[in-house]
């Protein structure tokens, strides 16, 4: 089929590229000409493993195109995907201004019957509203069907998830439109779950809220483990072997971040509030996550009498590994606290430093690699669990730091392994390691 995708952010670009990979002709629209030029050359504006190669192959095979021209982009399309951002407003609700503009652009430019698919994460009822916006602004006499097709992609593994996902959710109010979207996705070979539009909209929020709840729950357990002398990793492993619970998203740390969980949990609380329902559980999940970043800082403040003049090495800036996304990253709160308390902060991240420079305090310095960041540091903090850090020889901390004191916010290292090194090691929900030589460190 001929498909148009409006928006080339994380969701839109991955969606468009993967649809072209399974044989569809896809045109992606973006209003930024320089970004479009870059994508035409097969260069992704976002960091996502494997995406550049997939883009180049489908561009060369004339299945993937990019434009800023709506008339050109919509010409001959059977299906139009809306994949623009729905950023969080101050009250926690989703900002639908970009969605509204796309709906009006569709109404203005389409010249044939189409199915409009909302890929963006939107509050319940938005698809019905989008249909009204389109119908009220139509220039030509055409029929428009609306489908909700939420995405469930993990940043850093989005291409894998597209081809190996658990299910494809299709929400439609008529069988014709649902069948078209099912047919489009058939080459992926994934189960298709059909439902009504509003249920599909709700599934996306409910799924993300549940995963966020698991993260906040294990972080609360982690905090209790520290107080009672238990090891949260053993607790999580024991819990995860229960098939009713499962082991995924039970990794203690410094909380979730990124573009989805923080925004979607707040939006769901707002959605519930709009129908006069107090979602107490989810409010608690949000509070726990906000508090969790402070837990690492509290540990740091307890260990040192003051941070003024201390060199602090930060390993990892992105909210998670395999992405350059800095949205709601723990590094934002933590580096701000360190700078405000007079610390000399030197940070390193394999891919996110250019984005970090636009967001973090101007006093944060950057190293070209992990070892340079550790040079003469008084303390090191791991904020993102990149494989590069997990595979770092623990001897590197003793060899390069002024004093080998490490606060691991992501539990990257095995406690038994750490005990073999001269290292003062603090992690989340596990016993600290304070070897004899390290105990004399001030």
Radius of gyration, in Å, reads: 24 Å
The helix tally amounts to: 18
Q: Which spans have pLDDT < 50 for at least 5 consecutive residues?
A: none
Q: How does the major sheet shape up? A: 8 strands, mixed
Which band does the percent of strand residues land in? 5-15%
Helix proportion range: 40-55%
Form type: elongated
Strand order of the largest sheet: 3-2-1-4-5-6-7-8
How many strand elements?
A: 15
How far from one another are the termini? Answer: 66 Å
SSE class: alpha/beta
Q: Quick check: average pLDDT?
A: 95
Give a topology summary.
Blueprint: E1 2-6, H1 10-21, E2 25-29, H2 33-40, H3 51-60, E3 64-67, H4 70-74, E4 79-82, H5 97-109, E5 114-118, H6 126-137, E6 144-148, H7 158-164, E7 168-172, H8 175-185, E8 192-195, H9 197-228, H10 232-240, H11 261-274, H12 280-303, E9 311-315, H13 330-340, E10 344-348, H14 353-357, E11 365-366, H15 370-374, E12 379-382, H16 387-390, H17 395-400, E13 405-408, H18 415-418, E14 424-426, E15 433-434
Parallel strand pairs: 1-2, 1-4, 2-3, 4-5, 5-6, 7-8, 9-10, 9-12, 10-11, 12-13, 13-14
Antiparallel strand pairs: 6-7, 14-15
Any descriptors?
442 residues, alpha/beta, eight-stranded mixed β-sheet, seven-stranded mixed β-sheet, 18 helices, 15 strands
Walk me through the structure.
The chain is elongated and about 80 Å long. It has 442 residues and is an alpha/beta fold. The protein has an 8-stranded mixed sheet, with helices on both faces. β9 (311-315), α13 and β10 (344-348) form a beta-alpha-beta unit. It is 43% helix and 14% strand. The model has no long low-confidence stretch (mean pLDDT 95). The protein contains 18 helices and 15 strands. The longest helix has 32 residues, at 197-228. It has helices at 10-21, 33-40, 51-60, 70-74, 97-109, 126-137, 158-164, 175-185, 197-228, 232-240, 261-274, 280-303, 330-340, 353-357, 370-374, 387-390, 395-400, 415-418, and strands at 2-6, 25-29, 64-67, 79-82, 114-118, 144-148, 168-172, 192-195, 311-315, 344-348, 365-366, 379-382, 405-408, 424-426, 433-434. α9 (197-228) packs parallel to α12 (280-303).
């Amino acid at each position: 089929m001929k498909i148009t995708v409006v928006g080339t952010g994380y969701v839109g670009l991955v969606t468009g590229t993967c649809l072209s990979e399974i044989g569809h002709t896809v045109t992606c629209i973006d209003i930024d000409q320089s970004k479009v030029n870059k994508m035409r050359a097969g260069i992704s504006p976002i960091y996502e493993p494997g995406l550049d190669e997939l883009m180049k192959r489908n561009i060369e095979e004339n299945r993937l195109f990019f434009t800023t021209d709506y008339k050109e982009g919509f010409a001959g399309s059977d299906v139009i995907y809306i994949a623009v951002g729905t950023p969080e407003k101050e009250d926690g609700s989703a900002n639908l201004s970009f969605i509204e503009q796309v709906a009006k652009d569709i109404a203005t430019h389409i010249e044939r019957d189409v199915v409009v698919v909302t890929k963006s994460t939107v509050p319940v009822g938005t698809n019905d509203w989008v249909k009204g916006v389109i119908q009220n602004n139509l220039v030509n006499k055409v029929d428009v069907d609306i489908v909700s097709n939420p995405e469930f992609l993990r940043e850093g593994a989005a291409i894998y998830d597209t081809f190996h996902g658990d299910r494809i959710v299709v929400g439609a109010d008529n069988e014709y439109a649902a069948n078209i979207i099912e047919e489009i996705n058939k080459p992926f070979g994934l189960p298709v779950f059909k439902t009504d539009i509003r249920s599909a909209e709700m599934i996306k929020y409910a799924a993300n809220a549940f995963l966020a709840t698991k993260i906040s729950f294990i972080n609360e357990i982690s905090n209790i483990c520290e107080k009672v002398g238990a090891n949260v990793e053993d607790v999580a492993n024991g819990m995860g072997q229960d098939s009713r619970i499962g082991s995924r998203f039970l990794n203690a740390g410094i909380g979730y971040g990124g573009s989805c969980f923080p925004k979607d949990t707040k939006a769901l609380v707002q959605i519930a509030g709009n129908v006069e329902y107090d979602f107490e559980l989810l409010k608690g999940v949000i509070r726990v996550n906000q508090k969790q970043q402070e837990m690492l800082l509290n540990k740091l403040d307890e260990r040192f009498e003051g941070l003024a003049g201390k060199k602090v090495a930060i390993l990892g800036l992105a909210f998670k590994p395999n992405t350059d996304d800095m949205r709601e990253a723990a590094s934002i709160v933590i580096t701000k606290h360190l700078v405000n308390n007079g610390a000399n902060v030197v940070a390193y991240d394999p891919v996110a430093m250019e984005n970090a420079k636009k967001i973090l305090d101007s006093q944060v310095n950057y190293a070209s690699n992990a070892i340079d960041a550790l040079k003469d540091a008084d303390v090191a903090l791991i904020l993102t669990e990149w494989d590069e850090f997990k595979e770092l020889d623990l001897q590197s901390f003793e060899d390069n730091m002024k004093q080998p004191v490490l606060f691991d916010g992501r539990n990257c290292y095995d406690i038994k392994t750490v005990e073999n090194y001269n290292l003062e090691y603090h992690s989340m929900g596990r016993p600290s390691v304070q070897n004899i030589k390290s105990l004399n460190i001030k």
